[in-house]
């Protein structure tokens, strides 16, 4: 498995949204692609990640299949003119580069919003798909668990995940500050362009993916879009003609409507009696909530500048943490590299252990008839201890040789000395 890991990547850095939408995979499509790749190429360690910002395929194989996999992915999505789409892909044919890229993607270094907190969960979901299809071998299992541990270190040891670095996420975070994290306010989202759609995604993440969230209502001039998003996240839909009633019902109103004049004005709200507070979060430019609304008792308005200042502060904090994050990744990649190199010598260690164990058993068998049960048990225990001490030094030397890139020579010597080729590889749990 050494030096065989590769990947293809199509992301917001290489492709516009309209292309990413064409190539994005849902769970069924991702699993179907994985089965195709297994049947076509015999791949075993395989990971497919697909989010709104990226679609990537990671695999372990001796040959470089990057172009073939990209073409197969495109054909699976019904895009037969593959040559027109291949330039949007980035190919990583180097093992070390592919491993490093996966680490960086998983911690959020390559996210559209740096440090995106959703990406680790999305990658875990992709890893679960691999496990479901029995397409995660020892290499991928170890790699993913190393990455998850690294991600935890990044969260605990750096401010890389602190604050809300996007306008839409900052707006959702503000709700928790205004209402309280454990509260369930009625939230009205008006306008479902790019920002409004992103607000919906973050509201869904805020709730932990809970379905049937009827406290969140979507209102859009094009109702079909509202209905599609509501179906995806389990939200409620309101008719745009009922906007005034929906504002009266809501505790928090998030507006990202694009128009020349404010949509929400004092005149629109004049008949409303507010017993506590009603919060308006205006993400529109020009503003869709008239500033004069705040003159109405109980009405509080937060505009795009307020939200953007919060996001910019968090983003700058995350950017400043990148060198520390990269240092943590470098250490983790190096440690994983040492382990993956040791995979090369594990069959030899197993064979050596089995060869010596066979010698031990043969010699004990010759003398068992002269020993009592207690004596046999003591001899077995003593000889096992001797075997453990004998094998310890060759194992350490093989591991050290791996790090120096000299393992093949030592493997050949051990094979010749003990005629290891005639021994099978067994009992790996006792190796390390």
Automatic annotation (TrEMBL):
Record-annotated site: Important for activity: 101
Ranges of residues in domain Quinate/shikimate 5-dehydrogenase/glutamyl-tRNA reductase: 177-308
SUPFAM superfamilies the UniProt entry points to: Glutamyl tRNA-reductase catalytic, N-terminal domain, Glutamyl tRNA-reductase dimerization domain, NAD(P)-binding Rossmann-fold domains
Substrates-to-products reaction catalysed: (S)-4-amino-5-oxopentanoate + tRNA(Glu) + NADP(+) = L-glutamyl-tRNA(Glu) + NADPH + H(+)
Record-listed NADP(+) binding positions: 191-196
Gene Ontology process terms (BP): protoporphyrinogen IX biosynthetic process from glutamate
Superkingdom field: Bacteria
The keyword NADP is annotated on this UniProt entry: yes
Enzyme class label: oxidoreductase
Residue stretches making up the Tetrapyrrole biosynthesis glutamyl-tRNA reductase dimerisation domain: 324-420
Family: Belongs to the glutamyl-tRNA reductase family.
Domain notes: Possesses an unusual extended V-shaped dimeric structure with each monomer consisting of three distinct domains arranged along a curved 'spinal' alpha-helix. The N-terminal catalytic domain specifically recognizes the glutamate moiety of the substrate. The second domain is the NADPH-binding domain, and the third C-terminal domain is responsible for dimerization.
Stated name of the protein: Glutamyl-tRNA reductase
Lineage of the species this protein comes from: Bacteria, Pseudomonadati, Bacteroidota, Cytophagia, Cytophagales
């Amino acid at each position: 498995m050494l030096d065989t890991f590769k990947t293809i990547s199509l992301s917001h850095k290489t492709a516009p949204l309209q292309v990413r939408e064409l190539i994005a995979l849902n769970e069924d499509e991702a699993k179907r692609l994985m089965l195709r790749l297994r049947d076509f190429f015999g791949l075993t360690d395989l990971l497919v990640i697909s989010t709104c910002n990226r679609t990537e395929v990671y695999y372990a194989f001796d040959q470089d299949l990057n172009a073939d996999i990209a073409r197969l992915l495109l054909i699976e999505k019904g895009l037969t003119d593959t040559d027109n789409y291949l330039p949007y892909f980035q190919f990583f044919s180097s093992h070390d580069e592919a491993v490093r890229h996966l680490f960086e993607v998983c911690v959020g270094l390559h996210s559209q919003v740096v440090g995106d907190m959703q990406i680790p969960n999305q990658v875990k979901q992709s890893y679960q798909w691999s496990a479901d299809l029995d397409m995660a071998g020892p290499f991928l299992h170890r790699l993913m668990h190393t990455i998850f541990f690294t991600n935890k270190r990044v969260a605990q040891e750096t401010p890389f995940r602190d604050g809300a670095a996007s306008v839409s996420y900052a707006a959702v975070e503000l709700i928790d500050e205004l209402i309280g994290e454990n509260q369930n306010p009625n939230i009205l989202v008006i306008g479902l362009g790019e920002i409004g759609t992103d607000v919906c995604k973050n509201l869904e993440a805020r709730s932990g993916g809970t379905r049937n969230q009827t406290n969140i209502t979507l209102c859009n001039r094009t109702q079909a879009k509202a209905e599609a998003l509501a179906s995806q996240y389990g939200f409620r839909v309101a008719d745009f003609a009922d906007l005034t009633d929906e504002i009266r019902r809501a505790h928090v109103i998030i507006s990202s409507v694009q128009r020349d004049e404010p949509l929400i004005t004092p005149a629109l709200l004049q008949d409303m009696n507010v017993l506590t507070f009603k919060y308006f979060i205006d993400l529109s430019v020009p503003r869709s909530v008239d500033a004069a609304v705040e003159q109405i008792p109980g009405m509080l308005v937060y505009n795009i500048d307020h939200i953007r200042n919060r996001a910019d502060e968090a983003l700058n904090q995350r950017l400043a943490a990148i060198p520390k994050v990269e240092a943590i990744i470098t250490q983790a990649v190096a440690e994983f590299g040492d382990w993956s190199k040791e995979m090369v010598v594990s069959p030899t260690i197993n064979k050596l252990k089995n060869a010596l164990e066979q010698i031990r058993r043969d010699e004990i068998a010759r003398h068992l008839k002269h020993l009592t049960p207690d004596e046999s048990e003591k001899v077995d225990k003593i000889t096992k201890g001797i075997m453990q001490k004998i094998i310890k030094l060759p194992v350490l030397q093989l591991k050290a040789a791996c790090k120096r890139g000299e393992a093949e020579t030592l493997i050949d010597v051990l094979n010749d000395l003990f005629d290891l080729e005639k021994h099978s590889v067994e009992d790996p749990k006792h190796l390390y």
